[in-house]
């Protein structure tokens, strides 16, 4: 995560190191409200060149988890998951290098 506001989270990730010898076709970004404990909700399907995405229209003062899966013609890899993210009334910026995560191999 590179930015957290009261209603959005900016995710950034690295491509997987191994695509199984098949070209990467894209990414699936999903979100889950921590209080819901229900199924993951798809937030976006992105082109393989995109490694930064803003998940918008989130519920203020809620906690979310996010995950990103790499896709190729064979299927999806294991998702890379963020820790729980708490949205605040006021925006806050994250600057740590560890806020970027890598997708798992496909």
Characterization of this structure:
0% of the residues lie in helices and 46% in strands. With 106 residues, the protein is mainly β. The strands form 2 sheets. Strands 3, 4, 6, 7, 8 and 9 form a 6-stranded antiparallel β-sheet that branches. Strands 1, 2, 5, 10 and 11 form a 5-stranded mixed β-sheet that branches. It has a single domain, classed as Sandwich (Immunoglobulin-like), CATH 2.60.40.10.
β content, as a range? Answer: over 45%
What is the helix content? under 10%
Describe the global form: elongated
| CATH fold title | Immunoglobulin-like
| Overall number of domains | 1
CATH superfamily: Immunoglobulins
Poorly predicted spans = 92-98
Give me the Rg, rounded.
14 Å
The CATH class designation is Mainly Beta
CATH architecture identity:
Sandwich
Average residue pLDDT: 85
Structural class: mainly beta
Distance between the termini: 22 Å
H/E series: EEEEEEEEEEE
Secondary structure topology:
Blueprint: E1 3-4, E2 9-14, E3 24-33, E4 41-47, E5 52-55, E6 63-72, E7 75-76, E8 80-81, E9 85-86, E10 92-93, E11 101-102
Parallel strand pairs: 2-11
Antiparallel strand pairs: 1-2, 1-10, 2-5, 3-4, 3-6, 6-7, 6-8, 6-9
